Amino acid sequence: MSYAKPVRCGENIEAVLMSVEATPKKSVRRRSAELGVSQSSVHRILRHDLKMKPYHISIHQGLTPENALQRRTMCAWFLRQDQMSGEQFQTLNDLKSLVERWIRAVTPEQCEDTIQHFLLRMRRCVQRDGGHIEQLL
To answer: Which InterPro entries does this one have (predicted)?
Structure first.
């Protein structure tokens, strides 16, 4: 009677360990395909034999001081939209009065934020030789 070689043998454990040391960011799926060992076996070897915890790296946007400026500007815009949406106007003069009130309500800090954001966009535009900059902001 012939028995199949256990998958979690010293040879496969060593192969998984060497693979992890060579490329630690590689996924269990890709590592499994390269080693010819099932995903569940690679996962078991990592957890039980090598005492490692396989995980999936999630990339998240980092927040910078520049992002804070953009968030404040966008929040101010949304607040203004919300304030204006409830206003009713019947004539062009009513609309003009609403816009004038809205402009008077803009704070010096909001103006400064807007100017700084505009200057940032212009610097990025120059860095990109006039190319698209939306993905950089």
So the answer is: RNaseH_sf
| The token pair that represents 74 in the structure block | 């966008």
What whole-number distance in Å separates Cα of residue 36 and Cα of residue 19? 12
CA 14 to chain centre: 36
Distance CA 134, CA 137 (A): 5
Contacts with 26 (C-beta within 8 Å, 6 or more apart), sequence order: 19, 20
Distance CA(117)–CA(111), nearest Å, equals 10
What are the φ and ψ backbone dihedral angles of 45, each rounded to 5 degrees? -60, -45
Give per-residue pLDDT as tens, 17-51.
999 999 888 888 999 999 999 999 999 999 999 88
The span from the CA of 9 to the CA of 30, in Å, is: 20
Give me 121's structure tokens: 């966009």
Calpha distance 48→106 (Å, rounded): 61
